[in-house]
Amino acid sequence: MSPDGHVIPHDxxxxxxxxRKPGLPVLKxxxxxxxxxxxxxxxxQEIVYHEVAxxxxxxxxxxxxxxxxxxxxxxxxxxxxxxxxxxxxxxxxGEYSRHREEIxxxxxxxxxxxxxxxxxxxxxxxxxxxxxxxKKLHEHGGRLVRLDAFAYLHKEPGAINFFxxxxxxxxxxxxxxxxxxxxxxxxxxxxxxxxxxxxxEVAQRGFPIYDFFFPGLVIDALDRGTNRHLLxxxxxxxxxxxxxxxxxxxxxxIPVLDLRGKEVGGVFRDGLLxxxxxxxxxxxxxxxxxxxxNLYGPDGKKIAYYQINATFFSALGEDERKLRxxxxxxxxxxxxxxxxxxxxxxxxxxxxxxxxGGAAGxxxxxxTTLSPGDVEQGLSRIVVRDQLELMRLRNKSPAFDGExxxxxxxEHRLHMTWKNRGCVATLNADLRDHGxxxxxxxxxxxxxxxxxx
Length: 453
What we know:
The protein has 453 residues and is of the alpha+beta class. Among the domains are: 11-113, no CATH class; 190-384, Glycosidases (TIM Barrel). The protein has helices at residues 11-14, 54-61, 68-83, 100-109, 124-139, 167-181, 198-204, 214-224, 228-240, 275-287, 312-315, 320-332, 341-344, 351-356, 372-378, 382-396, and strands at 26-30, 36-40, 47-48, 112-113, 144-147, 185-188, 209-211, 244-246, 254-255, 262-264, 267-269, 291-296, 302-309, 336-337, 403-406, 413-420, 423-430, 436-442, 448-452.
């Protein structure tokens, strides 16, 4: 038992845990009865206190002898302690010490927690919550529901805490029954190394998967001028019939760990990129201003990069030609494209927001709020209008509901054609100079050729 009142697992159990931060994933949470209890919290262990106001202290304390001046003095002492990031146990109230318990209670009531708490899926109350939530999403017109960080749901003493089997599959089957009742499709959000093959297991059970491999492959292709690794992945999607949802940038970071190989059952399965190639992608994004999110072992030591946080435009060196071609490749990829608003507007890394964001500030680098004026100004930019044109083609052309053909070409070129119902859409790109053309033709289709240089 730790001094903080929670169990510390033995080393043989600790070494199985997959950490998102250094130290144990435990956060002390204040419950309505005033008690502080340890709570499993995979993602964040940060407590935030809001400053107290003298008026609120007077109203809440209800102590007749306290004056407005007393309340202002107490508020000043409390807020100085909070702003100095000191623990409330260090609160020195002086002449007001006899009211310590009441004052601390008021401060604790304003306590907020950063991020999301883990749910105890062994509780039926959690499943009632899931049912109610999915029902509401259905009533609001939802059709596709992302299961955020689903791989961490199942917990079992002595076992791993990431996609524990068979427990995770059992929970997913139960959630699917609820989703089916409301006509919803579930999208389990799972980050794992390509070599582990978990994406294939999920796909084989009929679920769409996030194509977390795609962003790194595109950066590699455009930086090195090679189609080799990207074509390997496209071929695998086609051969195995994977239903993917792909993206370039997103609300989190650019995945890099996902591209790695992994040893499973004593056999090493190669990644989509080699370690040296992945390191090059990481170094390039970092040199262009990215921030790092890491994974940790139970001893608190970093074991791997998890994500690099950057806008996709900045990750490409803020090169409009690269961004335009990256979007074209995405629109011609098999699967369903997901477009992050800030990358559509060629947003740059927001360092001020990242610096001001606290423990999770690295994510704020790609979450800049755009005003209506920002959007209007952005829509006048050629790189934005060109992306919108490519997206309209993908949305409107019947060709993309058909078959994809990959044409033989030099390694520095990418030549892809979609055909369906007499409509043909073709992308012919040069991965070295980043110029490309899009051709659309057919009996029932608008015909044109557009070149981007």
